[in-house]
Design a protein that fits this description.
There is one protein chain. This protein has about 425 residues and is an alpha/beta fold. The chain folds into two domains: about 240 residues, Aldehyde Dehydrogenase, Chain A, domain 1; about 140 residues, Aldehyde Dehydrogenase, Chain A, domain 2, CATH 3.40.309.10. About 45% of the residues lie in helices and about 20% in strands. The strands form four sheets. Strands 10-9-11-8-7-12-13 form a seven-stranded parallel sheet, sandwiched between helices. A four-stranded parallel sheet has the order 5-4-3-6, with helices on both faces. A three-stranded antiparallel sheet has the order 1-2-16, with no helix packed on it. Strand 14 and strand 15 form a beta hairpin. The radius of gyration is 24 Å and the shape is globular.
Length: about 425
């Protein structure tokens, strides 16, 4: 870990030299990690959890200072919510480290393939990506989650958190560093970018010599910038425009509870429902009571003309269907069929998470098969889209790309495969 004085770096040359040094040391560490035993990696992960537990109060104190600074800068309620740590969230961080330690190690896993006519034996082996660069806003827990998944999958990582969380992130990173060194793994396997200068991000995006993949976690502007500027492959999602569709065959009690939870569980997460779609035959039965629950919770309603004729609300604009509010605001649209609902989702959605509420299994199967999102759900609120809840231990992000990693990215998403080809002197063309 580099000393804290790098926080005040202003000179571009100094920043580029600093970032290059991080990259080179990460690349060297990745070679050692790729050959490290599962036992050693697991010991490090559990030790990291112990270190965080021992410094729990210090972390909460630093986080309180970050929160005060963020509120002074008026960064917005959604980011403040993501920034805040409490005992429950620290418990989750520690639990995530231990769960990842308990998960099977994907590195070295061999998938057998069919034999070839030539007699050559061809298999595939799962291997680390190398060095993972993670750029994120708020969410200090990402520091631990991303580090855990990177380490277990045999990757070194370079972490660049937002300036609003610098104090929290620095202390958490110190705990991770102590866990690594105590078991004899290189501290450069997990490195936090200590400077808050934004030029560090620009430098990081050009480090294709050292970094193998970039994963951004943050707002649309951040992800867009990284996608456009990076010389390195990017695993990303731009928006979490998630839908719940309440079908004509939905159980109304289930539907109300699911829709309410999908919106109000936490406004600032990317799996929060932003648009409610409801079948015309169900709307009159459910919307009055459901909208009353939303209004009692302080949720602003924006709806289509048909919705506004049932419950008083603001008329939704075209832009509402493509807006990730991350706030107590919801858009509502009445549709004439499930087909219309799926067309709306595939047109205006962000391929993140979408759910159908119905007791009709045939309709559910069609929805699950047809909606083109990284997670598609039946009779569940969209806020379940989370790597921890999917059994991944944690997640380094949620990908809406159509590449090897889609949905919550866990251990397997941070690995690739290489061919293993074994023969016995077969000569091609002989």
């Amino acid at each position: 870990m580099f000393p804290i004085e790098y926080l005040v770096m202003k000179d571009s040359k100094d920043i580029n030299n600093y970032m290059s040094a991080l990259g080179e040391s990460a690349k060297n560490a990745s070679i050692e990690l790729a050959a490290s035993s599962t036992k050693l990696k697991n010991e490090a992960l559990r030790m990291m959890g112990d270190k965080i537990e021992k410094r729990r109060q210090d972390i909460l104190q630093k986080n309180s200072l970050d929160l005060d600074n963020a509120k002074d800068k008026e960064i917005g309620d959604a980011l403040v919510d993501r920034l805040e740590l409490n005992n429950s969230r620290i418990d989750s961080m520690i639990s995530g480290l231990n769960i990842v330690a308990d998960l099977p190690d994907p590195v070295g896993e061999i998938t057998k393939m069919k034999p070839t006519p030539s007699g050559i034996k061809i298999n595939k082996m799962r291997v680390p990506l190398g060095v993972v660069g993670i750029i994120y806003e708020s969410r200090p827990n990402v520091t631990a989650d991303a580090a855990a998944l990177s380490l277990k999958s045999g990757n070194a990582c370079i972490l660049r958190g937002g300036s609003e969380a610098i104090l929290s992130n620095t202390l958490i990173a110190e705990c991770l560093d102590e866990g690594l060194t105590q078991v004899g793994l290189p501290s450069s396997a997990i490195q936090l970018v200590n400077t808050t200068n934004r030029e560090a991000v620009n430098a990081m995006l050009k480090m294709d010599k050292w970094i193998d993949v970039i994963i951004p976690r943050g707002g649309k502007s951040l992800v867009k910038l990284i996608s456009e500027e990076a010389r390195i492959p990017v695993i990303k999602h731009l928006d979490g425009i998630c839908h719940v569709y309440i079908d004509r065959d939905a159980d109304l009690i289930k539907a109300g509870d699911i829709a309410f939870n999908a919106k109000t569980y936490r406004y600032g997460i990317c799996g929060a429902m932003e648009t409610l779609l409801i079948h015309k035959d169900t709307a009159h039965k459910l919307l009055p009571s459901l909208c009353s629950r939303f209004q009692d919770e302080g949720v602003e309603l924006r709806g289509c003309v048909e919705s506004a004729n049932i419950v008083s609300m603001k008329l939704a604009l075209e832009e509402d269907w493509t807006t990730e509010y991350l706030a107590p605001i919801i858009s509502i649209k009445i549709v004439s069929s499930m087909v219309d609902a799926m067309m709306h989702i595939n047109t205006f959605g962000s391929s993140h998470t979408d759910s159908i509420v119905t007791e009709n299994q045939e309709s559910a199967d069609t929805f699950l098969r047809t909606v083109d999102s990284s997670s598609v759900m039946h009779n569940l609120p969209t806020c379940w889209a989370d790597g921890f809840e999917y059994g991944l231990g944690a997640e380094v992000g949620i990908s809406t790309d159509k590449i090897h990693a889609r949905g919550p990215v866990g251990l397997e998403g941070l690995t690739s495969q290489k061919y293993l080809v074994v023969g016995d002197s077969q000569i091609r063309g002989a």
